[in-house]
## 1
Amino acid sequence: MRIRKGELVSEVSSFTIRLSFHGDLAFFLKSKAGNKIVERRLGEKTSVKDVIESCGVPHPEIDLILVKGQPVDFSHILEREQEIDVYPVQSQPTLFHENRLQAKGIDRFIADGHLGKLARDLRLLGFDVVYDRDAQDRQLLAVMEIDNRALLTRDRWLLMHKVVQHGYYPRSQDAAEQTIEVMRRFDLFSAIAPFTRCLRCNALLEKVEKAEVMEKLERLTRIHYEQFRRCTGCGQIYWPGSHFDKLRARIEGIRAMLAAESRSENQI
Ligand SMILES: [Zn+2]
C-alpha cells in the first residue's frame, strides 16, 4: 500500500485495457482514421470514467459502458485486463435501456461564448438557452448547476469537468447543423415552438394589443401590422416584418434538414 493524494491506493501490477468506441465517438479520438479501438496500460486501479476521458472522450457523451458485455456506471473500477465497449447517446437505444448513463428530454441549456448562432437558433425554435458571449467557464458551470441545464460547448476539457451532468459537444461548425444535432441528442423534435422566446434575452414572449405598443412603433409599422408580441424580459417588440421573413426562412431551412434526415433514417 502507498499514500497518494491522501488516499490509500493498492499497488497492482500493470495491466492493459482495450476500449472499443462505438457510433460517432471516434470523433473525439486522436486517430480519426476510422480507428475506434484504443489500448491503455494502467499501473493502478482506475475508474472507467477516467480511462475513457484520458482517451479524449468527455463523459457527458457516453450513454452506455459494457465491461465484458455487462453494463457498468462511471465509478466502476478497473483493476485487471478488460475489454470495454463505449457507446454514445442514440435516439432509440434498444439494449440495456435501464443502464443508460445520460438523460434525454432536457430542454434547458447554457451555451458557451462561441456558440451564439446556435443559441439564437434554439431560442428561435422556442428553447430556453442561457447565453452570454463573455461568460467565463466558472460562470457557465455555476449557472448550469443552479438551473440544472445541459452545457453546450466545443471545449471538451470544460465538458469533462466533474460537475457536468448533462452536456453536448456539437460536431459541426455550422449553426443549423449544430441545432439539428442538439435536437437529436436531447430528443426535442416534438417540443418546437417557434416565435415564443426572445432572441435577445431568452425570456418568453407575450401577445400584446397594438394600442399598448403603438407609441413605440415606427410610422410604417403602425400602418402595416396588427399582430405584436412583447418580450416579458427586456420589452423588445416583435411583429411579422421583414426580419420575420428571414427568421421564418431559417426555421424552414432547419425543418427541411430535419425532414431530409428522417427520410435517410427510414431508409436504413
Ligand atoms: Zn427579451
Note: The longest strand covers residues 11-21.
## 2
Amino acid sequence: MLKKADVLSGKTVLVTGAAKRLGRAVALAAAENGADVAITYRESAREARLVVGELARRGVEALAVRCDVTDEKSVREMVKEVARELGGVDVLVNNAANYETAEFEKLTVSQWDAIFASNARGPFLVSREALPYLRKRKGRIVNMGSLGGLRPWASHAHYCSSKAAVHMLTRVMAKALAPEVAVNAVAPGMIDLGDPAATAFMKRMARQTPMRRNGTAAEIAAAVMFFATAPKFITGQVLAVDGGLGL
Ligand SMILES: NC(=O)c1ccc[n+]([C@@H]2O[C@H](COP(=O)([O-])OP(=O)(O)OC[C@H]3O[C@@H](n4cnc5c(N)ncnc54)[C@H](OP(=O)(O)O)[C@@H]3O)[C@@H](O)[C@H]2O)c1
C-alpha cells in the first residue's frame, strides 16, 4: 500500500493558471503527493516563480511556463516545453479562467467572447494539445468547472454559460478520450480565499450554505487530487464542492 505522499510519485501534473489562489493550492497538493509539477501563468510571473520555489522545496521537479490559454500557438509551445522538461504529462488540470460580474442588459459581445475564450476554448485547446502525452501515459484531465455552471446566476450569464460548456466538454472528452484518458470536473461553490473586498458577501453566502460556511482552497485541491488518483472507471463526472449550496 502506497503512503499518501507517494500516490503521484513518478507522475507529472500540469496545472494552468496556478501562480495564485486555487491553482496554486492544487499545484502544492500535487507536489505533496509526490508529483513533479508544471504550472502556467499569464501575467503573474513573480508569483509563479514563488510557487516554483515552494514546489521545489517539497523535493519534486517544478517548472513554470508562460501561456495564454486562449492562444493556440502559445498553448502548443507550452505543452511541448512541459513534456520536454518533465518527460510527459500524466494529469492535466485546466484551472485558468476568468470571472466577471455583469448585468445582463449591459453585457457586451467582447465581454462574452473574452470569457468564453479563456474559460471554454482554453480547456479545449490545452486538452487537445496535451492529448498525445496523456494518451501515452494513460492519464487524466481534471477541469475546473463551477457551481455557476450548474446553477444560473443572474449577473453572470457569460461566466455561467462558459462553465456549463466546461461541464459538457468534460463529458464529451470523457467519451471521446476513453479508454486511455479519464476526464472529470470539480465545480467549486463559494470558496473563501481571504479577499477583504468579499468579506460581507462571503458572510452572506455562508449563512445560505447548508454547511454554514464557505469552502477552502485545500478542500478544492483535495477534490482535484481525488480525481487525479481515483479509479479510472470514474469518468465524465462533475463534482460540486459547495457545502450543499447548490442543493
Ligand atoms: N475562486 C472561487 O471561489 C471559484 C468558484 C468556482 C469556480 N472556480 C474556478 O476555479 C478555478 C480557479 O479559481 P481562482 O479563483 O483561483 O481563479 P482566478 O484567480 O480567477 O484565475 C486563475 C488564473 O487564471 C489565469 N488566466 C486567466 N486568463 C488566462 C489566459 N487567457 N491564459 C492563461 N491564464 C489565464 C490567471 O493567470 P495570471 O494571474 O498569471 O494572469 C489567473 O491567475 C477557475 O477555473 C475558476 O473559474 C473558482
Note: The beta strands are 12-15, 36-41, 62-66, 91-94, 140-144, 182-188, 238-241.
